[in-house]
Amino acid sequence: MAGLMAGFGHYTHAVVRGIPASLAKEALRTSQAEVDLTGARTEHDAYVEVLRTKLGLEVVELPADESLPDCVFVEDAAVVCGETALITRPGAESRRRETEVMKEALKDLNLNIVEMTDENATLDGGDVLFTGREFFVGLSKRTNQRGAEILADAFKDYAVSTVPVLEGLHLKSFCSMGGPGLIIIGSSEPAQKALKIMQQMSDHRYDKLTVPDDIAANCIYMNLPDKGHVLLHCTAEEFPESVKVFEKLKDHMLIPVSNLEKVKVDGALTCCSVLINKKANI
Amino acid sequence: MTTESGADSEAKQPQAKKEAEKEKTKAAADPASPQKQPEQLPAAVGHSTPARKEQEQQEEDQESHRSSTSRLSKSPLRGVKKVKMMQCKIALLDGTDYTVNVEKRAKGHVLFDKVCDHLNLLEKDYFGITYRDVENQKNWLDPTKELKKQIRTGPWNFAFNVKFYPPDPSQLSEDITRYYLCLQLRDDVVSGRLPCSFATHTVLGSYTVQSELGDYDPDELGSDYISEIRFAPNQTKELEEKVMELHKTYKGMTPAEAEIHFLENAKKLSMYGVDLHHAKLVGNLYESLAPAEGEDSEGVEIMLGVCASGLLIYRDRLRINRFAWPKILKISYKRNNFYIKIRPGEFEQFESTIGFKLPNHRAAKRLWKVCVEHHTFFRLVSPEVPPKKFLSLGSKFRYSGRTQAQTRRASAQIARPAPLFERSSSKRYNMSRSLDGAPIMENHEAPVKDGTDGAPKAVAKEDIITSVTTERKAEEEKEAREDEAQKGGAETPEPTVTTPLRHDTKDSEPPPEVAKHQTNISELKRSFLETDGGGGAAGLTEWEKRLSSSPLRSPRADEAPMIEPLELQDAEDEQPAGEETKEELGPKGAAAAGYLVKYMADSIITDGPSSSGPHGISLSTTMDDDVFVDGTLREEAGDKTPDSQEEEEEEVSDRSMVKVSPGAVRQEVSQAISDKKGTLIIFKQAENKEDTEYEGTSEKEGLAVPAESEADGNQRETEASAAVKGQTSVVKMLSPAVEIKTGDGTQIKGIDSPKKAMASWIFEEKVEISEVTSVFTKEVEELKALEEPQQKAEEIQPKSSPTRIAVSESSSASLAASTLGWVSPSQKESADQDEKEVVITENEAEPANSKAHDGGEVVAKDVPVVHTETKTITYESAEADTNGDADPGVLLSAQTITSETTSTTTTTHITKTVKGGISETRIEKRIVITGDADIDHDEALAQAIKEAKEQHPDMSVTKVVVHKETEITPEEGED
């Protein structure tokens, strides 16, 4: 039976991209941290390995592009929901070309491609929180109203609500989904404020899991056939208090993933992959 | 047959006559019916008129008598003339047209019922009939209004549509209902009103095909079978192929199953059941609206979406805000502005009002109406009582059908075997057929003046928001007059024609077997509360909600369960069950109501002449936001509500009394009810317009729907008041405690009440009371103390006040007047006293709106000048005296409950006090009866008192105050 909006967290494929050497120096960042390129690459390899080996996803690895220092953060280049992929127009000019390879990759996966051609529109995938029932789009430095409108047009089934992101880079810099109807949220004031807005805008009911560290609230949730609820989250090394919170999730397979280096250039866990659910054949 | 204007006056007459007859018989059949009043009312009114006014009054009496008789004699040959029939063409959901003839003067529900019969549809409350107005805008046919007043021009073409989209279609009882819902949704999808993705189009399309054509069968269907059917606004070959692919997988699925699947998918669409209206933001303060750079949010184009859960604000396709119904305190419109008043948030102190500019006045009104209806249907247990027409401080429009809760209950009783019906609609969706049209159901229009269902005319409240501006009003009045003029003499509205909404509602009630389920409203309410907390909070108890929300703010990493339900905004606002009860029982619809009867019963335990403790919780508690649970829209209480003012005046000596927090109070409802002893009934009936408005305001909760009134309101107001013969009388009945105790009925005879019916009724009531009391006296441990309201002498003078506040003063004045009256134990005396002491004011206070209009001066005859006369009659038990100087005692508890029936709203205050070791329970009931001239006030009053008595059989009535205020506009008798 065909059912829409079912199977939140079901993924079969992941698109990732390598880390260019330029990331260390040129990638955009909100802080002045020094990135250890090797460390970042090791980290990323481990991340991809989890997706491929541990979780059994079909991983599409795109080559790094030295002219695109931020290209590892593929999430910002595309929003995929169901059979539709929206190729974004990233808010940072230096990142616009990241979408090219992404588009090709998603085309190859037979997704319906929607492109954001409007030159007034900007949207980073990191500002898009899909809850399984609706979208929240953070209006941030990287994403504007027009970008959100185009997203709403691309995914007509769903309500698309806008949420001002007053602090932090992206909406998902302090939140993500931790399961169907479960929002993981940081405890900072801006995070809580944003959550309140989401709450007000929504017709749906959500549970929330509050973690002490905002960035730790960025997790990857999946619901996989033989593994059930899976949550990729930060390591205890980075955010011990937040990890204690995750450890209370009894129904989830918890997989700590190190993100020490990428986080220095504002890369969170969700940033590094685009997850896709390709049905065998409908 | 098509519409004509004017030439049909002849036809109208007999029909009006006929209607009058019908109503009469109906009234006769139903003792509670308010309908029989108009005829006897003038006489009764005259009878009770204080002497000072007598002469004038008599003249008026005669006049109205005359007019009513002449009215009757005008059409002596009733039923002889042929009734004018009109042909109506209704576009059905399956694409066919249904043609049916209805009487020209038939009301909307007649047509609706015929269509539903034709469709074999029982769960019809989700549906409605639309028509296009002169601007080609879709309007919902008001079932309570005559068709011809709604269809002003053009042929009588209608469409049958889903009006309220059930959030969970699987809860519909019958497949046939789901089938029609599917048809509507298919239309919504194909027309683009319900946007969906390609994938959704394929899924919905595939179920449609399965439902209509059955299993995929290439031999029978061929390969191109599918292009006949429309699935999407832009249907592509690719889509059709995908639909076919899916269709193949459905072998064996029945049509009904396919429709269930269809609905399960459709209901999840974000625009499912959202009625969109174009608007612009007014003001630039807008929560969470992120304007584009350099853009002021003022004047931003938005869309307002009305749906089951509340009001959605869209900017383009984006949702930029959402106001769940519980978050909205009030909705109103003025000219082309639409306003919502928002409950303050968790950390906010003040309510905020957000304004939207609609394309024109009619659009604003249409939006307002849709909001009223959706709120009522989805949030309330039973519809609000429509406000009284002739006082028309606001629109009298209310949703008059059943609510979702009611219709669910009713349809649960449907016992017929599933009707067979043919699903044959596919043809209508073939490409050639043009569907409804606009991509989105936009109610966007150019400003046009059209009095179709009445231009707003009156204003209400202290709130600017609801007030109509002068020009507007003038214009509308003119409109209304022209309207009337057009119709010609025979069209002159008569009270009988101006059937109150309430009556209409009755008419439109479903067949008895279905209807009976809604008879016991309170039962319904109860079970509704049990089963469905209503709204978003479903499932969670308040306690659970609290629990879940509390840790939210101080997350502690090292503590146990971290997952907390994130409540919806509305859930958060929702109140505990008790409070909800309150909401649902709460008086509704009194807001714009004109005619007001208040009735308060103070319970007294008369074991000795002990004084009463503090009685009566200040009504102001009721006004507390918290009390009004769950934030249904509630009439704005404002700071000065006459009720609370009155209440306080009454309680002058009790000032020390602590106001009990509403929450605590509520918990004790049942207990207190069982404890009560002795009842004091103060019956207060007020017909002062402003007064009413005010009281309505204060007591009302539920959807507050102040708005401009209908176009013809003015006219009707005039007639109505003429018919009623404005007068205010306050009657207080107090039976001496002794009498009560001995069980010998207090003789309340010949009450100087305006109506005989009332007098006799009261007498009966009295007897009952005494019986009850005798049983009651045995309980010694409880003290019954009568708490007589302290009269404030200065309040006795009703002031004719140009402002609403002043009006409220005048209302309290009349109350005070009533207290004056109580001294006289016998009716006659009281009558005398009325003459002497009760100030009969001829209030020149006009309705607020007219004030705005002419600055408080009587300018023209068309302007309704309100003359208010006040009369007080009091009956009171002797003990009242004793407790005048009583020690207030210690307040144990106090609570306020509200309940309502069709035409009455009851607010009950129960106070328990202890004084000198004796506990006393006092119940004070205030019953507000809102009604038109056509409502039998006596009947309603009697009913209300009776019900009150039935509720508290173990208590005695110690005081009844009837306060009635009527406006009269002498010059404009029948017009």
Automatic annotation (TrEMBL), chain A:
GO BP terms: arginine metabolic process; citrulline metabolic process; positive regulation of nitric oxide biosynthetic process
Keyword line: Hydrolase
Pfam family, one: DDAH_eukar
One term under GO cellular component: mitochondrion
Catalytic residues in the record: 170 (proton donor), 271 (nucleophile)
Domain of life (superkingdom): Eukaryota
Protein's UniProt name: Dimethylarginine dimethylaminohydrolase 1
Native organism: Fundulus heteroclitus
